Amino acid sequence: MLLDLLHLLTTPAPRVQRRLGYLRDSIWLMSRARRCRRAWAPHLEASQAVMRAAIAATERRDTAVVLGSGLLLDVPLADLAAAFRRVVLVDAVHLAPARRAIRALPNVEMLTADLSGAMALMTGAARDLDLRLPPVCAEPGTGLVISANLLSQLPIRPVERLEASRRPFGPWTPEDGDAFGRRIVEGHLDALAGLTARVCLVTDLDETEEDREGQVHARHDLLYGVSLGSPERAWTWELAPFGETARHRCLIHRVAGFSDWRP
Ligand SMILES: C[S@@+](CC[C@H](N)C(=O)[O-])C[C@H]1O[C@@H](n2cnc3c(N)ncnc32)[C@H](O)[C@@H]1O
Fold it and tell me: CA 150 from chain center: how many Å?
């Protein structure tokens, strides 16, 4: 708790990210990752394996970009730094462990950006979603762009905020929650599809809430009905083992990995 407070006070993050709750979310994720280290290990290894396959198959070795780099738990950072002249890590928030991890890697840099295209809309600074990726993704030297367990996260805060709000965000009204979430998911995929670089996509697809007998009590589609086709690799991620959110319930996510994603 004290450690979380320290991160909240000392992390350099833009005011918008603080105000909209992105900094708090990252700190909360870091705490959960620490508590669930053992349960998460197979998922983190599987994610890294897909990214390593993408690195090995990429011919253009100038720049690699990681979207949703976060705490770098599922990102094979050393492999990327060894394989590419330059590695750019993009996230809404970069916490201290990630900042420390790149200190000894002079070819790795961090970029703070909103990848949902919704932050400016939420604060009233834009009239609609702006679904562009950072320009580095489309630079001629960029050979690999990895979307690292990011896609399902992009709509969470914006949809929550729109649904809780009594005023519209640009053309979106509080009743449009699902359509808004779907547009954010589609927007990220459309932007990835427009790149000439190889795209590696790792994302969770849905969440089930199960009891100790394996009975499913709830299921949520995390991608708002958007289908990705057959993944190269698929696995489950025990996001919240028994006791994490409820004594007799666990949360399981299905995850898909594509080392060479195309629409
Ligand atoms: C499940 S985590 C990904 C884990 C990360 N790849 C790692 O290895 O730690 C999702 C990440 O998406 C980031 N994120 C969520 N919404 C974002 C947004 N609108 N723009 C940029 N990053 C965002 C979060 O800050 C978080 O780091």
Answer: 2
Pocket of ligand 1 (CB under 6 A): 22, 26, 29, 68-75, 91-93, 114-116, 148-150, 153-154
User: What does the domain layout of the chain look like in residue ranges?
Assistant: 2-258
- CATH among 2.60.40, 3.10.590, 3.40.50, 3.90.120 for 2-258: 3.40.50
Of all protein residues, the one whose alpha carbon is nearest to atom 1 of ligand 1 is: 149
10-residue averages of pLDDT along the chain (263 residues) = 82 87 92 93 98 97 97 97 98 95 96 96 92 96 98 96 90 93 97 98 95 90 95 94 85 97 93
Taking the centre of ligand 1 as the mean of its atom positions, its distance from the CA of residue 27, in whole angstroms, is 11
Under 8 Å CB-to-CB from 236, ≥6 apart: which residues? 43, 252, 253, 254, 255
